[in-house]
Amino acid sequence: MKTAIVILNWNEKKLLEQFLPSVIFHSNEATIYVADNASTDDSVNFIKSNFPSVQIIQNTENGGFAKGYNDALKDIDADIYCLLNNDVEVTENWLSPIISIFKSEPNTIIIQPKILDYKHKSYFEYAGAAGGFIDKFGYPYCRGRIFNTVEKDENQYDKINNIFWASGACFFIRKNAFVTLNGLDEAFFAHMEEIDLCWRAKNLDYDIKYIGTSTVFHLGGATLNNTNPRKTYLNFRNSLFMLTKNIPKGQVFYIVFIRLFLDGIAGIRFLITGKFSHFIAVIKSHFSFYWHLPKLLKQRKTLQQKKKYYQTKSIVWSYFVDNKKTFNSL
Question: What is 3-218's CATH number, 3.10.20.340, 3.90.550.10, 3.10.290.10, 3.40.50.300?
């Protein structure tokens, strides 16, 4: 089973220097690629000089996470793609349990490993942790991380488990499934496009798995951290994109309306806490959503939707009202 590890890069030579060696050292079963999103730093020459075994794909523009991977993967011959962030440290034998599941479970098309925090290695990492879910209103959360509460890894999520979405920080997918699903939605640019892809896969009755016996460490926030209004804009807007495309018939307008209302409350909270740029980001995200709405409605006509997509009705209520801070308490 041919496996390709594909690391998307844009002007992050320092991260490649820090994290690429562990990927090379622990990934003998795979071919390693760096897909460069038209970097203007010395990333490409650095790879050529220092890591000659790594194959380079040079994209013609910085199309973000979605277009960057869509463009790069067209040129890669493999059975399994691993979309790996350039700020991830991998560990010994991290690939073996994942490849084993792909070989034994043909309906499993997407997998993520355990993702721990590179800076605090006994804790889960925000972006993915032990596998993701969403609530009825499209708010994502993870086993091991709900909102800003991150759990310590005490082997509570070591088993193989079905999940709703896998983290884009370390995202394995069968090539034939990626093609069938028409890849990542490039309108998202970055953030939540992997959840949208997983949701579309779930709607076609494919399985998505978390493998707790494979571990990686993610630095996180290397491109956009949580204090950046651009990230707020993309997360709020892309969540609305995702809901409009995938919510089952008969529920879509109600759910999207409620979500718009909840976003408004979040925007007011940004305003009263002095985060004016984030308040503006929420407003901009809504205007962008309205602009794209005709296209999104046209898209959903080509997609299959299923009724059941959530386990928790409102993670906001569970977390802030019922004070349930961990996944196992939900």
Answer: 3.90.550.10
Q: Is 251 helix (H, G, I), strand (E, B) or coil?
A: coil
DSSP code at position 59: -
What's the rounded Cα separation, in Å, for the pair 314 and 267?
Answer: 18
Where does the chain hold its CATH 3.90.550.10 domain(s)?
3-218
Token duo for residue 69: 């991977």
- What's phi and psi for 328, nearest 5 deg? -70, -10
Q: Output the tens digit of pLDDT for each of the chain's 330 residues.
A: 999 999 999 999 999 999 999 999 999 999 999 999 999 999 999 999 999 999 999 999 999 999 999 999 998 999 999 999 999 999 999 999 999 999 999 999 999 999 999 999 999 999 999 999 999 999 999 999 999 999 999 999 999 999 999 999 999 999 999 999 999 999 999 899 999 999 999 999 999 999 999 999 999 865 556 678 999 999 999 999 999 999 998 899 999 999 999 999 999 999 999 999 999 999 999 999 999 999 999 999 999 998 789 989 999 999 999 999 999 999
Q: Which pTM was predicted?
A: 0.95
